[in-house]
Amino acid sequence: MKKILSILLVAFLIATIAPAVLSAAETQKFRVAFSLPPIRNDFHGRMRVVIDEAIAEVIAANDNFEFNPINANDENHQYELLEMFMNDNYDLIAIMPSDATLLAPIVAEIYNSGTPVIVINRNLPEPTYTHFIAGDNVDGGRIAAQYIGNFFTEPADIAMVRMNVGTPIGEERHSGFMDEIVKFPHINILGEAASAPTRERGLEDMANLLSTFPHIDGVYTHDDETALGAIEAIRDANRTDIQVMTGFGGVRSVLEGYQNANRPWPESVLKGTSLYSPYMGADAVWLAVDVLKGVSHPQLIIQPSIFVTSENVDEYIHLGY
After folding, report:
1. pTM
2. What is the CATH number of domain 10-136+277-304?
3. H-type alpha helices, the chain
């Protein structure tokens, strides 16, 4: 377990959570449900793997826990799963929302009924939860802006390929970038595309930006999958004007690309990725144990973002998914 713990929680997991499990003498059986989104990308897939690994370790240490992790088929199915978990009187319900706005009412109902709730990765419109554990999306946008701003020493025009506009995670990645990029007056933002975290949408939306703007110096994307699609669009259009692109997330193939000093164009345009640990799902499992054991932790557990480039990728390659 300790090899996969995320950066922020290593100390308290080792010093606090694990001992609590191993020394527990209670005979009460705790039932914990995990409502997870459809597995639509590598991040979701990796999240399920680390959750299952952590569950196995908890059960091996203490058989007073039962876990029921289920990935939904779609957003409506996830709503139905939460209703089922609520009606089945689980002792704690953890949720990684696919659509936080849609699920907010049922999560609030669960929380207001007295059941502890842990929300993972995507925040809700209102803090109707016991704990929220996530990466720092605002800071991820900020450090991407710093990289792009410092990359250019002369006036430069950039575009943005956003993700899930209007959702908390999308707005946080946008606001962090916008708040920081204004500190670089030589950077001009040409425009943006409202995209989604898939290669297909990245290709489509970047192609639209390329057709709209005859010259672009740099691109900020909200997701590595989107960035990979944007690179395909750049190749298709043979747009050699673009000098830099940043991603967000930590797709393994992207990080491995940073290890290659001889990446061909246009892959070499993608210079860096903002990321945080995908092991927050495992952290949420151990956090659930603590909650049910009565151990106190802050309501908000925000894990720091890191900006990974060719210079530091070897240090963080293990966080790729």
Report:
1. 0.84
2. 3.40.50.2300
3. 10-12, 18-22, 42-61, 75-87, 100-112, 137-151, 168-181, 199-212, 224-237, 252-258, 280-293, 313-316
